[in-house]
Amino acid sequence: MKRIWILNILLPLLTLWSCTDDWTFSTDSSYVLGFSTDTVRFDTVFTGAVSASAEFRIYNPNEVGLKFDALMGGGTASPFRMNLDGEGGAVITGLEIPAGDSLFCFVSVNITPDDRTGVFNAFDSIRFVLESGVVQWVSLSAHGQNAVRLKGRRIEADETLTSNLPYIIYDSLYVADGATLTLSPGTRLYFHKGARLDVAGRLIAQGSRDSVILMRGDRLDEMLPEIPYDVLAGQWGGIRLRSQSYGNLLEWCDIHGGDWGILADSADADQLKLSVVSSIIHNVDGNGIEATGCRIEVANSQITNAGVTCVDITGGWSEFTFCTIAGFSIWNIGSQAVLLTDCRDGYAVPFLGAQFRNCIITGRHETELVTLFADSIKKTAPYSVSNSLLMVRDTTDARYHDVVFEDRESDMFGPYNFTDRSYQGYRSVFTLDSLSRARGIADTLSAVWPIDLAGVPRPPLGADAGCFQYQP
Of 304, 358, 376, whose CA–CA distance to 334 is shortest? Predict the structure, then answer.
């Protein structure tokens, strides 16, 4: 009985001792901190804007607690800022980590604008000074990029944007009726969430193979490690061409990550509204190209991974040559690669014709070219597909000429036509696999388009369908 009474007294004391032991702090220099990384790196950060926070973890792997101070190497003049245990500043004192515990350090960077045009570097480090006098470091590095900020900008007269500095677009960029916006080769437009390029006048975006014009969202950080926002759809609006807009040209452009790609409003189909040449429209939430009652021409281009339809044509006249039109978005299944119809929102739109030559039209569905026409023209609607690789269930349509049909029962269909089947980096690559059935099926139009989207020459005879010629 006495033994039980003694244990009843000692057990709470032992428990108290074991709890308070974690809060024993040592000044022995043999005890040091551990870190989840020795360097925190930021990708390119636009000057004058606070970056998203990066984080790393500070560990105490010892059996005793440690006290320390954290000091930013550059002091208050540093472009970097830290926050530890809910406290921010260039100097944070009196920090404690019990034995076996850890805490997070959050770091951001705000680089002051200057007159440099290229990307430049910023460096600093956080010093961790332990109560024992031991000093440890975590390095910080960032790439800065000056940019021109356009907020609610209206282009009322002819204007040219150049490649000297990137542009960050807030509240959309509007091109008024009668005005022409010209984008020089290499121009980079970064659109804030919801912002778009709204064209009532004319857009001439004429890049080159070595100086592509870029249109994308303005987030340069990552949603998750190794998943940057740049590979996600829905990061900005897209391009809208108003009804009164004609003669628009997009050549050697990379347009990706939007709510949509290009919306071409209803217009006079006797005038060319849009020409897309040697360009990429990729990874958008809605339609890649949506055209209503207008005339468009698309050549040597990639329209891929739309959340709805890659190419949505209602009425008018459209022509696609050496195009890769494919839907393999990893975020949603989408509708189909191509939709042809003569009705939009309940209104009939005269369908004058659509032509696909030397194209790849494929995706996850059994049929990737869908037509929705009024009964009166269903059998005679003037569209055709020739010298192309096509995923459809009905292969008997007389409007298909010299077409190779995808065989879902084979080992080579859909994504297997392309070199990247794993969607590594969340950005599909649509260069051709050596066994793709799109190889060697194009007609003689390769004389008109002798160079593919990657700059690879096409042979005069037996070129590959799609925007990429196979390259070993």
Answer: 304
Structure tokens at 37: 């990384």
Q: What is the pTM of this model?
A: 0.88
**What digits encode the pLDDT tens for the residues 260-285?**
999 999 999 999 999 999 999 999 99
Which of 144, 165, 198 represents a domain boundary (last residue)? Answer: 144
Asked whether 429 and 305 are in contact (CB, 8 A), the reply is no
Helix (H, G, I), strand (E, B) or coil at 99: coil
* Structural tokens at position 296: 């468009």
DSSP letter, residue 334: -
Q: Which two tokens mark 38?
A: 């020795």
The mean per-residue pLDDT over the stretch 374-385 comes to 94
Instruction: For the beta carbon of residue 67, count every other beta carbon within 10 angstroms.
Output: 16
Lookup: tokens for 378: 């269903």
Strand order in the sheet with 34-35: 34-35, 54-59, 102-109, 80-84, 87-89
Q: Which helix (H) or strand (E) holds 84?
A: strand 80-84
* C-alpha distances out from residue 238 to 18, 82, 116, 206, Å: 61, 36, 29, 18
23: in domain: no
**Does any domain span residue 466?**
no
What pLDDT band is residue 330 in, cutting at 50, 70 and 90?
confident
Bridge-based pairing of strands 272-277 and 338-341 is unpaired
Residues 157 and 119 in one domain: no
